Amino acid sequence: MEKRPVVFIDRDGTINKEAGYINHPDNFEVYPFVSHAVRLLNVNDILAVVVTNQAGIARGYYPIGTMHLLHEKMESILNENGAKIDALYYCPHHPSSKIKEYALDCNCRKPKTGMIDKALQELPIDEKNMYVVGDKLSDMEFGWNAGCKTIMVMTGYGKGELVKLKNYEKKPDFICENLLDAVLFVLEDLKK
Ligand SMILES: [Mg+2]
Ligand SMILES: [Zn+2]
Q1: CB 153 within 8 Å of CB 14
Q2: CATH code for the domain of 28
Q3: Average pLDDT for residues 91-118, to the nearest whole number?
Q4: Is-catalytic flag, 10?
């Protein structure tokens, strides 16, 4: 299969409004520009892959079934608008979890690269053209750790995280308003 560029997209604060530990689909609000952004990736043969830390599961704030309900809601909103996520990876773990199966110092919790490692095994990814989009510095570190270009958005925690970035040696490749701007950057960058 032909290898394709990929955009790894953070969920909370990037796809949906940041609302703490979201424990019900009614509190899960997808930003209005997301369908357009993902559809642009789809029509340009770029893989759209969601990567999300869901330590709320490990902390017992909501069961894993609730997370699946949120993802069903996300996918149905996207599908209604002609957009599709190619794959979704989540990390339900946290070392301090009281729930045995999630009490793990795992490899998949961002900024560790486990979710990208798995995607590389499962999807036809062109490793030279990998991007990470997120609202937190940990998303940027996740991207740097895996050799991706990084894009920071100003939705979610973005504006506050930007202040912390001042003390960082490394900088994201692009800082922008939201996921749609990030995708437009990717499309331009791939023409180079
Ligand atoms: Mg986020
Ligand atoms: Zn994990």
Answers
A1: yes
A2: 3.40.50.1000
A3: 97
A4: yes
Would you say 10 is a known binding-site residue? yes
What confidence tens digit (pLDDT) does each residue in 37-85 have? 999 999 999 999 999 999 999 999 999 999 999 999 999 999 999 999 9
Q: How far is the CA of 107 from the centre of ligand 2 (A)?
A: 6
**Residue 126 appears among annotated catalytic residues:** no
55 annotated to a ligand binding site = yes
- Domain range holding 183? 4-191
For 148, the 3-state DSSP assignment is coil
pLDDT tens column, 134-155:
999 999 999 999 999 999 999 9
Q: How far apart are alpha carbons 107 and 124 in whole angstroms? A: 22
Confirm or deny that 54 is annotated as ligand binding: yes
Tally of domains in the chain: 1
Q: How far is the CA of 53 from the centre of ligand 2 (A)?
A: 8
Identify the helix (H) or strand (E) that includes residue 113.
Answer: none
Expressed in angstroms and rounded, the spacing between residue 136 Cα and the centre of ligand 1 is 6
